[in-house]
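Hi R.,

Here's the chain you asked about this morning:
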Amino acid sequence: MYGQLKSTVTCLTCENVSITFDPFLTLSVPIPKPLNFTVYFMPLNQDTTTCLVLQLPMSNDSTIADLQAQIRLHLQSTHPLQTYGYQPRTGLITHKFTQDQLCEDIDLS
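And here is the predicted structure, written out as tokens:
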């Protein structure tokens, strides 16, 4: 036996309280997977077509502002960034992300 689950039940009629302990061998708990983002950084205000590819591990509660901070850290830059969704198959920018949007909510398909 590795653990016990305590259950407390109270009768609504007589208000008798019953407490039981049920043994368990294993307990399943979800372990959040870290989000790994592949970021394609393309400066829009320069005369270059260079694309920088960054692999950035982010936590599940990271926001776009956190992602931008990681990008600035890699670039060693303090300039503000605008973050857009891009579809490589079509070559279209799909939408602009807000600072408070969660990274885990981004559709990566």
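One quick note: The helical segments are 64-75.

Cheers,
M.
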